[in-house]
Amino acid sequence: MTNSVVNKAIADASQVFATPMEVVEAADLSREEKIKILKNWELDARRLVSSGDENMAQERGPGRSRLPEVQAALRALDVAPAAST
Length: 85
Hints:
By secondary structure, the chain is mostly helical. It has helices spanning 3-11, 20-25, 31-53, 67-76.
């Protein structure tokens, strides 16, 4: 994976990967890159949940929060997901 694709994945993982587990399974990424991508995806997912809680984004379907999937992917890498706030 080229540096530009890695940087794109770090900025918006859903534009590069269909699911968080695809990040875990990507053979051409280092463990550190996978963690960075998933941590940013987790932050984005938390923001989506938060905005939904505030009735700002009531998306369901493809735009839904992937927080549980991202947390499972982080656990697959033996990384603790961020604590809920």
